[in-house]
Each structure stands twice: as structure tokens, then as C-alpha cells.
Amino acid sequence: MNLKSILLGAAAAAAAATGAQAADLPVAPEPVDYVRVCDAFGTGFFYIPGTETCLRVGGRIRADFYFNDFGDSNNSWDERTDAGTSTRARAYIRLDARTNTEYGLVRAYIDTYFTADSGSSVGTTLDKAFIQFGNFTFGRTTSFFDYFTGNAFNKQSQVWSDKGSTWVAAYTAAFGNGISATLSVEDGTYRQVGTVGHRAPDLVANLRVDQGWGSAQLMGALHEARLANTSSKTKVGYAIGAGVTFKLPMIAAKDSITFQAQYADGATSYMGNGNNTYADAVFSAGSTKTTKGWNVAAGATHYWTSQWSTSIDASYGKLDRPFGLADVTQWNVAGNLVWEPVSGLIFGGELEYQNVDVKGLPSKDSILGMFRVQRTF
């Protein structure tokens, strides 16, 4: 073997060893978009990877046990075919996506819940689904007329405007120092009571203030009351209201008290209308007349300790029906005791009383009890 062969063999061995070592080296991983916390809109938000949109995923689980009406006779406990007790399981899914843009805030919000009551199949409700673009709001959300809708659980309907959700197209102007005003076009079919057809949406406006001491709101609405009788005239109903909430930190850190009053003429849904069973307008003797009503309400929450609290709500309302139809009065009281051992988890018991008095008929007292376990996250 000559020197040339030795050198060639050594070079080949070195090249093979170098190639083996290179193959053993780790390969650099592909870049990864890690989830980042977004603190621009409060706790719980994170950036959707690869975007400047912040998302919060939340929800709620609720388990209720009801002791149904055990008030006056013909209640749920007297009738063999009625359920004296019943249950409800409900699950909420909430998504809140927000992006700061040159046009202001762009927000998309979804709140959907699934409900299973005793002896019934699961029902799905799209509670809220709206888009905010700067000062504009489009979609399904709480009416801009509604203000105070209770602190207690309130399975029995109180006498105040609490439509839940409706379709809106609204503009909100902020004037600084917590003062704002909103003009909202809302789907009037959600507010129809005893009327049919629909041509014009409801027009709703409010003036609101939110400051350290609490909040207050003045609100008004115009509503079309249209009957099926072709001889009847369409009436333009209206409603007005006012509410104020005072924070009471001098008593306990999260204590508050609220007062509210509303009046409606031809728009009874805006004042609570005794479970919304009495028509906005009535046609008789060749003329159309509107139903009028008013209510007053109050609610307070007190924290006995950081974990134990009580909420009490009360309301009273009166409906004046035209053409000698029986007037209706209703008042409600609800109170509870709630234990919150950890943030977002509550165990609560509530007792509710309702009196409905239709003129000329015996008044009806209803009493209901309930127990709730709820986890919000």
C-alpha cells in the first residue's frame, strides 16, 4: 500500500465521520406563535395567535331546584297534574373578541345557553350576538330601554321592563365623565303584546351616567300598536322611565341600592305588564284605545361578610285597561341568601311572593322557593 492510498482512505473515513455527526445534530424547530396575555380589556383576555384580536372565553353552569307555587288554592301543590317541584340545568358559553383599530373598538360578542327543564328536551337560546364598531352596535343584545332588571334570582316575573334580548341598531355618544346617550332602532316584534303585524321598528333613546357613586338612566321608547281588525287605527304607543343605583361602600364594599319607575301608554311590555298578557291596545265600538300602565321598583344587595350576601327586590305595577275592561295590579317581593365560598361559585336559596289582582276577581297569591348552585368562569 503506497502513501497515496493511505491518504485517500483517511480522507474518506474523515468525510464519513463528519457526515454522521452532521446527521446527529438537532434541527431548528419551526417558529411558534405563543399565546400572549392581553391586558387592554381587563382580565381573562388573550391574543389570538397571529392577530391583534383579544379573545375572552367564559361561561356559566347553573343548577336550579324549584318549589313551585304553593300559595292560594289551585296552585302547583293542589293539582295532581301539576309539578310541585321541578328542576333546571343550564349551561352558558360566552365569547368576547375585541380589537382596537383606527376606527375605534371592533367587538364581536356571543352568548348562547342550553336549558334542560324537568321532563323536557334540551333547548338552545342565542341570548346575545352583536357587533360593535366604534360607537355603533348591531345585533341581538339587551334593549337600551332596560335598566334595572333585579339583583335576586326572580323566577317569577317582576313588574319592570326586562325583555331579555332584542335586535338593535344603535349609536352611543360618549360625552366624558361617564355620561353617554344612545339612540337605538329596535325590532318592535319583540315588544308586541296582543297586537299583530309590524311596519315600523321601535325607537329607543336613553341618557346615562356611570360614575364612582353609582349610575343613573333616563329612557324613552316609541312603539307601534297595530290590531288585526282592519277598522282599527294603528296607535303610536310610548314609554318613559328613570332609574338610579347608589353604591354603599360605607356599609359594605359591594353593597348597592336601586330605584326605578316606568310609565307606558300603548307599549305595555316596557312596564312589565303582568307577565305580558294584556294587549297594548283594544278595539271596541268603532274606536281604538290604548292600555296605560305604570310601575315602581327597588332592589338592594348587602354583604354580611365577604362570602355571605342577601339581595331583595320589590316591584308594584298597575294597568288601566280601556272600555271598562278589568284593571290589573301586581306586586312582587323576592329575597335570597347566597354563599360564595370561592369567587364565581355560589349556593343560594330564595323565596318569592307575587300578588295579582284583576278587578272584579279574587286576587291570586303565589309563593315560590328555589335553591341554586352556579359557577361562573
Q: What string, H for helix and E for strand, traces the elements in order? A: HEEEEEEEEEEEEHEEEEEEE
Strand adjacency order, main sheet: 2-3-4-5-6-7-8-9-10-11-12-15-16-17-18-19
Q: How many E strands?
A: 19
DSSP summary: helix tally? 2
Low-confidence stretches: 14-18
Q: Could you say which overall geometry the principal axes of the C-alpha atoms support?
A: globular
In percent terms, what proportion of residues is strand? Answer: over 45%
Please give the share of residues in helix. Answer: under 10%
End-to-end gap: 81 Å
Nearest-angstrom radius of gyration? 30 Å
Structural class by sheet pairing and helices: mainly beta
Query: Biggest sheet, open or closed, and with what strands and sense?
Result: 16 strands, antiparallel, barrel
Chain-averaged pLDDT: 91
- Oligomeric organization of the protein chains: single chain
Question: TL;DR of this structure?
Answer:
The protein has 377 residues and is mainly β. It contains two helices and 19 strands.
3D structure, described in words:
- Helices cover 7% and strands 54% of the residues.
- The chain has a domain at 135-335.
- Mean pLDDT is 91; it is low at 14-18.
- The protein is mainly beta and 377 residues long.
- The longest helix has 22 residues, at 3-24.
- It has two helices and 19 strands.
- It has helices at residues 3-24, 273-276; strands at 46-47, 54-67, 85-101, 104-117, 123-133, 136-141, 166-176, 179-186, 202-211, 214-225, 235-247, 256-265, 281-284, 287-290, 292-303, 308-320, 328-342, 345-358, 364-376.
- The strands form two sheets. A 16-stranded antiparallel barrel has the order 2-3-4-5-6-7-8-9-10-11-12-15-16-17-18-19. Strands 13-14 form a two-stranded antiparallel sheet.
